[in-house]
Design a protein that fits this description.
Helix content is 46%, strand content 13%. It is built from 20 helices and 15 strands. The strands form 4 sheets. Strands 3-2-1-4-5-6 form a 6-stranded mixed beta sheet, sandwiched between helices. The protein starts with 5 loop residues before the first strand and ends in a 16-residue tail after the last helix. One of its GO terms (biological process) is regulation of DNA-templated transcription. Keywords: ATP-binding, DNA-binding, Nucleotide-binding, Transcription, Transcription regulation. Pfam families: AAA_lid_14 (PF25601), Sigma54_activat (PF00158). GO terms for molecular function: ATP binding; DNA binding.
């Protein structure tokens, strides 16, 4: 069965855009029991249809695609379509003569291709194949996320006395209904701690809803948290459920709680005291059985003293306070955190980077970490993207990491680390200094340096790569000895 060239879209319905719409008759006879079929003749008109129907698939004739890409490229055309339908799959239709070009277009971002003449069974096969591939990718993403969530709780194995106290308090409060107030600097792990409390609670199988209060405009705080009725204000064209209603029987995490408006404070107080709230513009009592965890990086007590935060709400939130120490006060956890974040990056990306260079770990232990754990994770991610070897090397990290504060003197040992961690850092430092001295002595000559070290040139190259040492940096530094 032959289908003339055109564009086809599919979302429970098949929408064909063909130069000759009478070619649809055979397709309609074959597929009308499964799909509703409609037709059109122009790409521009198809884009307008996409805005309304949001198809999952679009079948594009290769000549129409070439014409659209004449003044740009295929990726630009795909991007235009994807802006209208972000989750759309694009399939190219081509004659056998243009098959090489169709394959090229698939490499440019199309999901698949079909050759003319098209037959219904092949059409179904391509659709089902893309659906299965999408499902498999979604399951893989889910499994990766599950692996990360499980690995994330390795953070509980802390060496910091302060964090051990924090985790003991969390275990004590998790199974209760008490409201928890998390305090600490930005990036110190309040979001992770809130999720941990939920995971350890009796509500772990219910929803965990996170609300970033500081990111919501003042005029919309009440609507976001408690919902609104149709016509409650300009733009309220229909009823909207708030976060408290969505989180029913679960946990709601109110981050940056100190930023909410006075009217929202009153409503929040009512929810905590009575378990009841109203949507904006509504009078119906809505019951709310929700565990509240709040967080702030500013002094909520000072806000209360300055009359910027209600005293009664402050006391209701501050039932069980938990203060998270900044990273600079728990540096003994940095090697483990770095290892954990590196494992996370390896899980989500195709690289396999085994470790962090000893000089980088040394700099980590000396750095003040104003951005706390979030800064550590971001710095590692940037270095990971840049790294081309199996170890995160110093040149891929910010210069200020190695210049502020001054490096510790050789021989200085961090007594908070385990023997294994100290041995790794110290042996790495000794190995680096030894190779640096030999390369300097031998003017960077590989054969001479390997002979002096009593190792093969292959072993030397491997060690130089590990320690980011380059022979070009040792040229003409002096005459070789012996």
């Amino acid at each position: 069965m032959t289908i003339d060239k055109g564009i086809t879209t599919f979302l429970k319905k098949l929408h064909f855009i063909l130069k000759q719409t009478d070619a649809l008759k055979g397709i309609q006879d074959n597929l009308s029991s499964v799909y509703h079929i409609d037709s059109n003749r122009q790409l521009s008109a198809a884009l307008q249809v996409f805005r309304r129907s949001r198809p999952e698939f679009v079948f594009v004739d290769i000549e129409i695609l070439q014409q659209a890409a004449a003044e740009s490229n295929y990726k630009a055309v795909f991007q235009t379509i994807s802006l209208i339908c972000p989750n759309i799959s694009i399939i190219v239709m081509a004659t056998p003569k243009l098959l090489p070009e169709a394959v090229k277009i698939v490499h440019e971002g199309a999901a698949s291709y079909l050759t003319y003449p098209l037959v219904p069974d092949e059409l179904r096969l391509v659709i089902n194949s893309i659906i299965e591939q999408t499902r498999a990718e979604s399951e893989l993403d889910y499994l990766r996320e599950q692996v990360w969530q499980e690995d994330e709780f390795e953070l509980l194995h802390t060496k910091s006395a302060a964090m051990k106290t924090v985790f003991e308090n969390i275990r004590a409060v998790a199974a209760t209904k008490s409201t928890v107030l998390l305090t600490g600097e930005t990036g110190s792990g309040k979001g992770f701690t809130a999720r941990l409390i939920h995971r350890l609670s009796l509500r772990k199988n219910e929803r965990f809803i996170e609300v970033h209060c500081g990111a919501i405009p003042d005029t919309l705080v009440e609507s976001e948290m408690f919902g609104h009725e149709k016509g409650a204000f300009t733009g309220a064209i229909k009823r909207k459920l708030g976060k408290f209603e969505i989180a029913r029987n679960g946990t709601i995490f109110l981050d940056e709680i100190g930023t909410i408006t006075p009217p929202a404070q009153i409503k929040l107080l009512q929810v905590i005291q009575d378990g009841v709230f109203h949507r904006v513009g509504g009078e119906e009592d809505i019951q709310s059985d929700v565990r509240i965890i709040a967080a702030t990086n500013i002094d909520l007590k000072q806000l209360r003293d300055d009359k910027l935060f209600r005293s009664d709400l402050y006391y209701r939130l501050n039932v069980f306070p938990v203060e998270l120490p900044p990273l600079k006060e728990r540096k003994e956890d940095i090697p483990q955190l770095a290892e954990l974040f590196l494992a996370k990056l390896n899980t989500f990306h195709s690289k396999d980077i085994a470790e962090v260079h000893p000089k980088v770990l040394e700099a980590f232990l000396a750095y003040s970490w104003p951005g706390n754990i979030r800064e550590l994770e971001n710095i590692l991610e940037r270095a990971y993207i840049l790294e081309q070897t199996s170890i995160l090397r110093p040149q891929n990290f910010p210069v200020e990491l190695f210049t502020y504060p001054p490096k510790p003197m050789p021989g200085t040992i961090n007594h908070n680390l385990t023997l294994s961690e100290v041995r790794k850092i110290e042996l790495g430092r000794i190995e680096h200094n030894y190779l640096d001295l030999l390369l300097t002595t031998c003017n960077g000559k590989i054969n001479a340096t390997a002979a002096a070290a009593g190792i093969t040139t292959r072993q030397l190259h491997k060690l130089m790569k590990k320690h980011a040492l380059f022979k070009e940096n040792y040229k003409n530094t002096g005459e070789p000895r012996g």
